[in-house]
Sequence to fold (108 residues):
Amino acid sequence: MKLYQTYFFFLKGIVMLQLVLVFFRVDFANNALFALADALFRLSLGLFLGLYIWLFPPKGLDWEDSILISIGGFLLLADIQFKPLLRAYEERDKLFAYLQERVHALIG
Fold:
């Protein structure tokens, strides 16, 4: 598997996790798992847009447009919310118990 295929597989996994959280109607403001998925999504997409498009602009794309797209990627990186991630790290034992409870409820 090529590196970019692995990257897109990773992004699909994060999006699927967020869809599952939406399906179970999880409270996003206080959920550590959603904060982690959101931060990983922003980090990976921000790095991709910020670095890859800037260093390797697609053919037919003007130089100014690639810089604008790269700035958008770096803005995604700057927009990551770190307070929910720190709270999630502090409450990681509750998170694992919550996940275990949800899996058991789902299985039966």
Remarks:
- The longest helix spans residues 32-55.
